[in-house]
Amino acid sequence: MDESPRYTLNGRTFVPVGESTIGHDVWLIGQIRAAGLDEVLMRAGESTQGFAARLLHEVCAKGSIFTLLGGLIIPEGTPGTEWCESIATQTAQHLATVSDPREKALVQSLIIEALVDFFGVGLSSFLTSQTSSSDAEPTSVIVASPSTATGEG
């Protein structure tokens, strides 16, 4: 039995992307940068609530939040491995048209949940791990799975 969260918005149901492709991962990193999530730091003396509110306002002002969400959820029945940028674009456009107050609240909670989860796993600074050996191994980028960013895992 699949226990993934389901989000019904404007008559369409979406689920977390879950397992996906490297193309999705790279695209998502780009969207995180476009949203400014890799540069926002808590200011000295700023409360956690103040930081969260400022972050939300800054990300929304950049206008990329729906695109980012389009990479975190996918239409139900579409495997995450079939995710593509056009699906993200269509999802983002669909999310932007939500008008029912309860559904708007759900989209807002998805935004907040995504932002909280990104910082919870360290995406804000794109943590990297490097080997200490002299062998030249590629640097790894630690990326939260889309399911983590939407509360699935």
The total of beta strands comes to 5
Summed up, the helix count is 6
| Cα separation of the termini | 15 Å
Percentage of β-strand residues: 5-15%
Mean pLDDT: 77
Task: Tell me the number of structural domains.
Answer: 1
Across the major sheet, the strand order is: 1-2-3
Computed over alpha carbons, the radius of gyration is 16 Å
What is the 3D shape? globular
Indicate the structural class. mainly alpha
How would you describe the overall organization of this protein?
- With 153 residues, the chain is mainly alpha-helical.
- It has one domain.
- The protein is 46% helix and 10% strand.
- The chain has helices at residues 22-34, 48-62, 65-70, 85-96, 101-120, 146-149, and strands at 7-9, 12-16, 73-75, 128-129, 140-141.
- The strands form two sheets. A three-stranded antiparallel sheet has the order 1-2-3. A two-stranded antiparallel ribbon has the order 4-5.
- The longest helix has 20 residues, at 101-120.
- The protein is globular, with a radius of gyration of 16 Å.
- The two termini are 15 Å apart.
Chain-wise SSE layout:
Blueprint: E1 7-9, E2 12-16, H1 22-34, H2 48-62, H3 65-70, E3 73-75, H4 85-96, H5 101-120, E4 128-129, E5 140-141, H6 146-149
Antiparallel strand pairs: 1-2, 2-3, 4-5
Provide a quick synopsis of the model.
The chain has 153 residues and is mainly alpha-helical.
